[in-house]
Amino acid sequence: MPSPLVLVANEPRAYRETIALALKALRPEAEVIAIEPTDLDAEVKRRRPDVAVLSQKSATVEDVVPSWVLLYPDGTNMTVVSVAGEQSVTGSLALDDLAALVGSA
Amino acid sequence: VSEEPIRIVLVEDHTIFRQAMALALDQESDLRVVGGAGTLAEARELLRSVAADVAIVDIDLPDGSGIDLIRDVIKPGSLAQVLVLTASATRIDVARAVDVGASGVLHKTTALPQIVDAVRRLCAGKPVMDPVEIVSLLRLVNEHRMTHQKADAALARLTRREREVLSLLGEGLGDKEMAQRLHVSKETVHTHMVNLLGKLGVETRLQALIFAVKHGLVQIS
Questions:
Q1: Is the N or C terminus of chain A more exposed, i.e. has fewer CB atoms within 10 Å?
Q2: Structural Rg of chain A based on CA atoms
Q3: In A1-105, which ranges are continuous DSSP H helix?
């Protein structure tokens, strides 16, 4: 089974880098890449990731990426999780939940 | 000889970031995260039960400002230091944080290695902020304090009637309506208005209203 590819492209930078590092530690089988949010759409088209973490909605991500997490949009405490087109909104997503999502990708 | 790791407390309401940061810091052999809190109340409770060398504190917490927590960390007999990590602080927020004892303020756009470096520098007794910038921030806080003191003094000079006129101004009433509400003549309302403009040191009704709203005397719903 190929390793899942995760693009971490949320803001701010400290979040992006720590979340990418933590996912690499928790899911060593996954390929986790932190990228600039402005590069997300292009990287999604090029790499076709299994999971994307972002902080601004993206039509490209919605069309292409099977699982994505919209993390704290506009600085809120809210998170939108989409798995195979099924979306749910939560205010209490934990790091383990995110790692589990990557594990199931 | 092995040294004790630097004990860190994380105060951050974004759960995933707090947990990821804890994991990232724990991967450094000289750092150990000893606790995390998502609210001001949780942080206060946590700080009562664990000893920390550095508290990394966000300013925007759901139940208040992280700035209020800094005083709790910097208490007599404690060597703990505070590193503020914020996404949205204004310059005056940064200045207030430094004024109450934060040793450093970093924006969340800072790269992770720089945050780690700042923690190590703090514990080594090295500065993480430019001393010139610290002086500038403390000057800013002082200026704000003076402005508020002047405003409080001006508001304290207002009579009860002048405060009522200001309040009615906030409701959007004109002289005629104010006179009816206060059971006085329009000329009396006008006199109160002239007097309160003079006491507040402003020239127009709009300026008086803005002054009153800004300093909490009038609330506009």
A1: N
A2: 12
A3: 13-26, 40-47, 59-64, 95-103
Chain A residue with CA closest to B60: the answer is A75
pLDDT for B1 = 44
Q: Which segments in chain B show pLDDT lower than 50? A: 1
Q: Model confidence over B117-137: pLDDT tens digits?
A: 999 999 998 999 999 999 999
Q: Kindly state whether A14 is in contact with chain B, defined as any CB-CB distance less than 8 angstroms.
A: yes
- Cβ separation of A14 and B16 shorter than 8 Å? no
Is residue B10 within 8 A of residue B35, CB to CB? The reply is: yes
Q: Sort out which chain B residues have CB atoms less than 8 A from A71's CB and list them.
A: 16
Chain B residues lying within 8 Å of A13, measured CB to CB:
108-111
| Residue B3 pLDDT | 80
Residue B85 contacts A where some CB pair is shorter than 8 Å:
yes
* Cβ–Cβ < 8 Å for B119, B54: yes
In chain B, the residue whose alpha carbon lies closest to the alpha carbon of A16 is: B17
**Integer Cα distance of B218 and B194 in angstroms:** 18
d(CA A91, CA B211): 38
Chain B (86-105) residues lying within 8 Å, Cβ to Cβ, of chain A? 87-88
Q: Is B109 on the interface with A (CB under 8 A)?
A: yes
Tell me which DSSP letter residue B58 carries: -
DSSP assignment of B133-180 equals HHHHHHHHHHHHHHHHHHHHHHHHTS-HHHHHHHHHHHTT--HHHHHH
Which ipTM score applies to this complex? Answer: 0.93
Q: Do B24 and A93 touch (CB under 8 A)?
A: no
B178 alpha-carbon distance from chain centroid: 36
User: Pick from B92, B90, B75, B86: which is nearest to B115 by CA?
Assistant: B86
Give Dmax over CA atoms of chain A in angstroms. 36
CB-based contacts of B208, cutoff 8 Å, min separation 6: B166, B169, B196, B197, B200, B202
Could you tell me the two tokens for B63? Answer: 């139940």
A41 vs chain B: nearest CA distance in angstroms?
A: 21
